[in-house]
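Worked example 4.2. Below are the chains of a multi-component assembly; read each line carefully before continuing.
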Amino acid sequence: MTETKKNPLAALIDVTKAWLTRGKTPYIFIAIYVALATVLVYLSPRSVPAFLMLLSSALFLYYLPTSFKFKIAVGLILALVVMPVIGVRNIFYLEVIFQISVFAALALGLNIVVGFAGLLNLGYVAFYAVGAYLWAFFGSQQIYLLNEIPGTAPTGTPFFLPASSFYLFLFLGMGVAALVGFLLGLPVLRVRGDYLAIVTLGFGEVIRVLANNLDKPLNLTNGPQGITPIQRPPLPAGLLVTLRSIMTPVVGRSVTDNEFYNLFFYILALLIIVMVIVVVNRLDDSKIGRAWMAVREDELAAAAMGVPVVKTKLLAFIIGASFAGVMGVLFAASRTFVSPESFNFMQSIGVLTMVILGGLGSIPGVIVGAAVVVVLNLQVLQGLSLWLSALRQSDAVIPIINFAWKNLSNQLDPAKYQRLLFGVILILMMIYRQTGLIPAERRKRAAEIIEIENDIKNNGNGHPADASPAGEV
Amino acid sequence: MTLLDVKGLTKRFGGLTAVDHMDFTLDEGCMYSIIGPNGSGKTTFFNSLTGIYKPEEGEVHFNGHSLIGLRPDQVTSLNVARTFQNIRLFGSMTVLENIIVGMHHHLAQNTFTALLRTKAFKDEEETSRRRAVELMSFVGLRGVGDELAQNLPYGGQRRVEIARALASNPKLLLLDEPTAGMNPQETVDAIALFRRIRDELGITIILIEHDMKVVMEISERISVMDYGKKIAEGLPAEIRADSRVIEAYLGRGAAAEMNH
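Applying the procedure described above to all two chains together yields the following structure tokens:
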């Protein structure tokens, strides 16, 4: 262990940490922090800092030492009471949270492939596209338009399946994406490293190009125009009435059906993300998770220890793909529209950026990475854009150089610099913090190990031969 | 009883024959050493046995199974384990996890039991952790179960590698230069450990070793390889006196000088 030099900032952080983790302080701190953030967002529904404060309360909740019950309770209040209310007051926030959930699930899936198993997949969004197009095809009128030219759908075409089959398709999307992952993985996983990255990149593009061009001879995808409308699952009418009567006084006006749909998809995304986190966590701490990491660390040694390398990699591919498949179905339904443009290379890179920014192999890290990238994209960049365009329309002049904002080129719109932003994030992370914002940590079992060690000491030096393993041959 | 029977094993890399018609039999419970100058094909021989390389010719029978054409993990599941010349641990996993990876093919759990956290799964995880700690204590490691493998000192990493190999419950253990880079005291401890592995666990050991003191002290039989061929085999005393061995190590001129 190397002794790191303390700078004043680190010392300050240490002092704050010591204060925050003592006794009842974390409970009080979180309660005040959450309450303050809620009030701020409620009072000024357009303030980005207030919203960020609310988002960051989730981090404090996760890290500060409070009881499990307290964490769950505050988490539920935040997710099911606070967010819906402020989300309906400013629907944009709900959209932000929804996108964070969708991308966090995607990033967690990609994290299995890249972070755990060490397989660089640059075409991950293709599996997302598979899920999205699956529901887009069966959940719209597309099946009756196979022989129509895109854009000439006759009016009054019925939907093929009832909207409620959406729930079934969540599972089908998972299965079909997993199958595609399996079929792709079978040949592809025999190549390694850079070659794998290139092959998966190609696969991602193939899926997008297919979506773009499968409007003839049979019109499967409606080509570049995309498929719309795609059905949303029906909301139970009884529940709607109750919810509306509860929410109207809180929000201060009547809540529309569309807003309820946004709420519904937000809750659904949250549910899925909770399930995804449980799945990833449990896999991580099991034979298969250890095998993934062993293959990542040293493929040859892993094989020599009895880990079937190809099968292990294939499983990572399949499980990663299945997450993307579910999210694809959800995405198609929530947008009621899919087009090939939603699944371009930039999306794959975006998800990869989240994984690398958050920390390869780190579950909390990847979620934070997704949150940061989505907030940067949707709020910070767009906020800057709005600010610049406001300046451009005013008569303001930059002092000293005497430059009128009016003359500023349209090319300098920050919203157009998403790619630049991803690039800068990746470069900075590689130089200064390869392990990400929240580096991956292995599970510690100190207490259990000491207990077993003492046990061994007391009962003579237990021979490993005595304790036969579970599956003795 | 013959545990390992190798006949005419040949591995070529392009024009170079790295292992040339190697014949080799090994009795159960033996402590066997393979020596030879650098580049004589010892490690290639190990790699050909364990499925890392696919040999061009020859047969390998272990405990009634042919090992030819099997993948490394299949060879391991037939109870052959190995360590590597340059330590190959899973650096960013804990020592405990490294050892549990060695148990991979013994664990009955699968993706579904892991997701559902069944009782069988939890019990198996607990048993495997217990066994890993026992293996750690067997190889002389204490209190490092939570450390990342890469943070251990060199000698400790060697021990973890041996514990990881033992975790796969081998009948045959292949050790590739296990004392390379150790100081004299560490070497003495290592020799004691190898003896205990053989005597207490009943595991047959093949050792590739450069340190002649270790080889002569510990081996019951020795094979000498040079240019991919086995040039001599016998008891330590016979090998020490064999002129072909001295030639291989020191060159013909030096060997001749020693005889005169």
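Take a moment to check your reading of the output against the notes. The first strand of chain B starts at residue 2 and ends at 13. Residues 119-138 of chain B form the longest helix (20 residues).
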